[in-house]
Amino acid sequence: MEKRLDLSRFINRDNNILQLVLITVVIFAVMSWLEPTKFLRYYNFESISFIFPELGIVAIAMMLAMLTGGIDLSVIGIANLAGILAGVFFTKLFPGDPTAGAAGEIARVAAGVMLALGVGLIAGALNGLLITRAKITPILATLGTGQVFTGLCMVLTGGPAIVGFPAYWGLIGNGKLFGIAVPLLIFVAVAMVIAVMLTRTSFGLNLFLIGTNPRAAVFAGLKSDRMVLASYMLSGTLAALAGIMLSGRTNAAKSDYGTSYLLQAVLICVLGGTNPAGGKGTVLGISIAVIALMLLASGFQMMRFSNHLIDFIWGGFLLLVMVLNAFRNRA
Amino acid sequence: MMTLAKLMRRSETAVFLIVAAIMVVIGLINPAFWQADNLFNLLRANVIIGIMALSVLVVMISGGIDVSFPAFAAAAMYLTVLAMNAYGHEGVMLPFIGATLIGLICGLANAFFIHTFRMIPLIVTLGSASVVRGLLLGLVGTSIVNIDRMPPALIAFGRSSLDIGGAKLSVMVFVYLAIAGAVWLFLSRTLTGRSIFAYGDDAESAKRVGFNTRRTVYVAYGLAGALAGFAGLLHASMIWLANPRDFVGYELDVIAAVVLGGASIFGGRGSVLGTLLGVFLLVLIKNSLIIMRVDNTWQGVVVGGVIVVATALTAWRDRKTLA
Description:
The complex is a heterodimer of chains A (331) and B (323). Chain A has helices at residues 2-34, 36-39, 42-67, 75-93, 102-132, 138-157, 167-174, 182-200, 202-212, 214-219, 224-250, 261-271, 283-302, 307-330, and strands at 162-163, 176-177, 180-181, 252-253. Chain A has a two-stranded antiparallel sheet. Chain A has a two-stranded antiparallel sheet with strand order 2-3. Helix content of chain A is 78%, strand content 2%. Chain B has a single domain, classed as Orthogonal Bundle (ABC transporter involved in vitamin B12 uptake, BtuC), CATH 1.10.3470. With 323 residues, chain B is an all-alpha fold. The relative contact order of chain B is 0.19. Chain B has a two-stranded antiparallel sheet with strand order 1-2. In chain B, strand 1 and strand 2 form a beta hairpin. In chain B, helix 8 crosses helix 10.
């Protein structure tokens, strides 16, 4: 009986991945058919490989919160705060020394990266503490902290974008290593680490347990609070990483960058088979979903759809996928 | 029942006392605060956020959450103003009915997805907000209808005010209070209103007791959408322009105000009076930053901080009552 249950779940999971791959192939085929000259160019795929990793990492951060039945609405605030604090660090606190060699510059950038990731860790810890200690619902806690983080961005910048990041910082967002986009490499590394963590470590499995049945998890003796806190800290750190990549790619940081990423991250999670009520989600699903959506967006951009209509399509797609999932679960 | 009533009274008293204390402090820092002009302006600033907060209150009592009302309000406002200009309509009655209907239809669409497919309200409303806003900006237009192109009847309506001791109090404040009264009557004195509380408290029990839960969900989201649509057009008539990108970010302020007013995000709890006080508190804090000469960039931090502190206090209070 046990085995059968496991088997059926395994098939179900693969069905989800299969459905995703199918959607991706359909999108790819339709776009290639509609815009063969522009869509099928190497340049198009290369530019996608620079842009999608940020969004993919934000979506993974969102998924980590969703696994325990929560949500992290502050990811964009954290990403921007990390980028802006790094920008303040580079331009005001620690301006570049022209006499310093490459080693000095690399050390400066490394310090900036540590600072940004540290900010993400602290911000995530704040979310986690509010959720586990103060017992605030994740939606409200992260809605509030997201506002605080974005507000701090406004206080730090006063509105306009911060520019003037060091060249090595830019490499994180738009450099190439062995002919492959650096952001893509970072994404693959992050995805693999998180995937292994979720499926092969007790921490990951416990997160799924907490999401499936929080009460049972408590009775099973799991230290739920600590696990949830850790998951939000990880989520915050990943959001900060996305912020580093975003500010590196655009060589700027601003309080309202990437605001449309929030909806897209939720959409990618849902499309990728993450259950917003907790207990279900895979990194593989997220990865395929983000690529599918990026192909869709780049195709529509080539057909000169306005960004607003693309927003409409995102929203419609989200509802459609939820409807499909509802039907599948019913069957 | 008695203890619940007492508790409700207590949380509203708390908000009221906080409001009073803040007003005294601001008055000490800047006595100009107590001028009738300033107080009337403050009340006027409550109107739009307040009507939207009533809309969110209804949804929150039903155990859901709504982040789509800003998009619905923008759509109802912009479409109605464009239609008024296209037909050269002179009245205001019909346009307000139209805007309310647009909001109602959008709200019913939310209810359809939430009830039929058992979807999570947050995600449905995130999606529907994006759909409505995308269609509005992508297909209808992005240009602002300025004061010179606004229907005169609408502007005249928004300007109507009462002269009290030399200061002007906008009539819209009374419109807001009338709506609040109607929502209060609906929530506390009708069976459908009570069914929203029952559904939010425990959907399964509400169903077993014999409430038509489908109807409850449709009424809650439909009413929320209708209120948002009405508030949208009222906003245009009060600021004399119609901007399809308006209301972005309102969801935070409004949800904060409703939570400040003591409504529970888990459903089943919340009151109109609490919401009015919560809205007043939020508007007071935002406006007084300016009057206390705090830099405007701090607004986001303060509002976010208020949300976090208020929700933490609510959670703490709820835990105490559960124990």
